[in-house]
Amino acid sequence: AMIKNRNRIFLGIVVGLFFLLCAMVWFKPDTEYSRVERRKLNKVPEISMERILSGKFMTEFETYSLDQFPFRQAFRSLRAQTSLKRDNQGLYVVDGSIVSMEYPLKEESLVYTSKKFRNVYEMYLKDSGSNVYLSIVPDKNYFFAKDNGYLSLDYEEMVSTLVEDNSYMTYIDIFPLLSEEDYYKTDTHWKQENLTEVADRLLFSMGNGGEYTYEVVKAPGDFYGVYYGQAALPLEPDEISYLTNSTIESYKVYDYENNQEIPVYDLTQMEQDDPYELFLGGPISLVTIENQMATNEEELIIFRDSFGSSIAPLLAEGYKKVTLIDIRYIQPGVLKNYVDFKGKDVLFLYSTMVLNNSETIK
After folding, report:
1. How far, in Å, CA of 348 to CA of 168, rounded?
2. Cβ-defined contacts of 254-260 (< 8 Å, 24+)
3. How far apart are CA 291 and CA 251, in angstroms?
4. How far is it, in rounded angstroms, from Cα 138 to Cα 179?
5. 1, 13, 151, 221: least CB-packed within 10 angstroms?
6. Average pLDDT of the chain?
7. Under DSSP, is residue 246 helix (H, G, I), strand (E, B) or coil?
8. Does residue 58 or residue 134 have the better pLDDT?
């Protein structure tokens, strides 16, 4: 009798939870946006006889139900923690650092990259008298994969292929200056406060090195990077710090995409979806930095991805003006209306993740 009563109680709890969840699914307001995952959640699909008969309604309703399920984030976290796989959605965790397993090397992507770089070179740089450089930023998988038994692309092959295919550029190797400690634990990107040696290597290689000192300032609040939401694991957040001095404080930064002056470090981004965008406003197609305390008249043009946002303020120490161009968001053909390439230093600075997935480059 005691066992029967216990079974009834257990069954009652299960049935009660089922009806509670059903009620919450039907009556709770839909959540429009997931800050953790940085994406819009699906809304209830449109009902029509045609959509029902085609099966489209049920497919969309299933996706909607999963997005709007009560305590969804808690269940995602539980699933991630109990998963038997060594990686979760291509991510793995080592010592509290979430890493994306970038693999394999996509040769067609490197061919496409070099084609796009060559287009820019033929259009603007071939007869401009510019000094053209290439530098590659390794992703975190470069440092974590081998020692922890995960797959990774052939980084040596990637570098040698790109250097050979873009022989008109001078390659600046920054791989030896970086380690796993130089990247945020919950995000893709590198930490600006750890980049002074990298910036020095680039500046000296381009003939504009100097002695620069900085104050490290911690931005207010926690930083939950892009991998945090994808991994759905209860890990510690990062902090974001930024480097400043009297020269950086003198910079005038202009955002040509939105026709406005912007701060070097926009601290209001700490309250937005991606706090890393505090560095020069994030993914903007065309930005200039004017160094009011420059000791020369030289200018630098950087073709870059998001990694360039945080190192550019350090590189601007050595130049009167730095122009950042992101050809993922602007067609190279229109640059003639904004940028004078004659006699400038030009740096192509890209991460291995973008180079291996270069279809975003225009």
Report:
1. 12
2. 254/287, 254/288, 254/290, 255/281, 255/284, 255/286, 255/287, 256/284, 256/285, 256/286, 256/287, 256/288, 256/338, 257/284, 257/285, 257/286, 257/287, 257/329, 257/330, 258/284
3. 5
4. 9
5. 1
6. 86
7. helix
8. 134
Q: How far apart are CA 30 and CA 41, in angstroms?
A: 9
pTM over cut 0.85: no
Burial of 138 (0-12, 13-18, 19+ CB in 10 A): buried
Which residues, 6 or more positions from 29, have their beta carbon under 8 angstroms from its beta carbon? none
Per the structure block, which two tokens stand in for 90?
Answer: 């291509």
CA distance 127 to 341: 10
Tokens of 147: 């020692």
268's CB contacts (< 8 A; 6+ apart) are: 278
**Please, which pLDDT band fits residue 85 given cuts at 50, 70 and 90?**
very low
Q: Count Cβ neighbours within 10 Å for each residue of 87-102 and write b for 16 or more, e otherwise.
A: ebeebbbbeebbbbbb
Q: Which two tokens stand for residue 229?
A: 């939401």
C-beta separation of 134 from 162 below 8 A: yes
Q: Residue range 282-307: average pLDDT? A: 97
Q: How far apart are CA 268 and CA 277, in angstroms?
A: 9
pLDDT of residue 84: 40
Burial class (CB in 10 A: 0-12, 13-18, 19+), 84: exposed
Strands (DSSP E) found in the chain? 33-34, 39-40, 91-94, 97-100, 131-137, 170-171, 215-218, 241-244, 252-255, 260-262, 286-290, 299-304, 321-325, 345-351
Q: How far apart are CA 238 and CA 277, in angstroms?
A: 15
pLDDT score for 44: 63
Pairing between β-strand 260-262 and β-strand 252-255 as defined by DSSP bridges? antiparallel
**Residue 242, beta-bridge partner list:** 217
Burial class (CB in 10 A: 0-12, 13-18, 19+), 33: exposed
Is residue 35 packed enough to be buried (19+ CB in 10 Å), middle (13-18) or exposed (0-12)? exposed
The DSSP element (H or E) to which 200 belongs, if any, is helix 196-205
